[in-house]
Every structure is written in C-alpha cells, then in structure tokens.
Write a structure and sequence with these properties.
This protein has four helices and no strands. With 91 residues, it is an all-alpha fold. The chain has one domain (3-90). The longest helix has 30 residues, at 61-90.
Length: 91
C-alpha cells in the first residue's frame, strides 16, 4: 500500500471521529487541517464543520474560525496555482 493510501485511510478515520463527536478535539481538528491536500478532503472537512456549526444554537468561535479557514483553502490553492502558471509563462 502506498503512503498516500495510508494517509487517506487515516484521514477518513479522523473525519469519522469528528463527525461522531459532539465536541471534536482540537488535536484531531489540527491533525486533519495539516493533512488537507485535495479539494475532496477540504470539501468533506468543511461539510462536517458546517454541520457542527449549524447544529448548535451558539457555535463556538473556534469552530466558526476553523470553518472559515477551511473555506479559504480552495481559494488559496487556486491563487497559488494561477501564480505558478503566470510565472511559467513569464520565463
């Protein structure tokens, strides 16, 4: 099994863990955030966090901040890719 497959399995398990928990641990959330590398994983993570925020009348500021940070990731990745493409064209 390749390293990426192991990472994907572990990440999937961590997603399951935070979906099941009423109050996911900050350690687990931080581990997930460090492992987000694909649009699919970012999408799943933001969906889980959005459900957690929506399920609570008064969501924690930390959870809302994590959700906002995760929502910014695809935009940041797109900007980085566009910058790399511009650099290649200018060379």
């Amino acid at each position: 099994m390749k390293a990426t497959e192991h990472r994907d399995r572990i990440l999937s398990r961590l997603f399951d863990e935070i979906e099941e928990a009423d109050f996911p641990s900050t350690t687990t959330l931080t581990k997930i955030e460090g492992s987000l590398r694909t649009h699919e994983s970012i999408s799943r993570y933001t969906e889980i966090l959005a459900k957690k925020v929506e399920a609570t009348r008064f969501p924690s500021a930390a959870m809302v901040n994590r959700l906002n940070g995760a929502l910014d990731r695809p935009e940041q990745a797109e900007h980085q890719q566009q910058d790399r493409q511009r650099e290649r064209r200018s060379c």
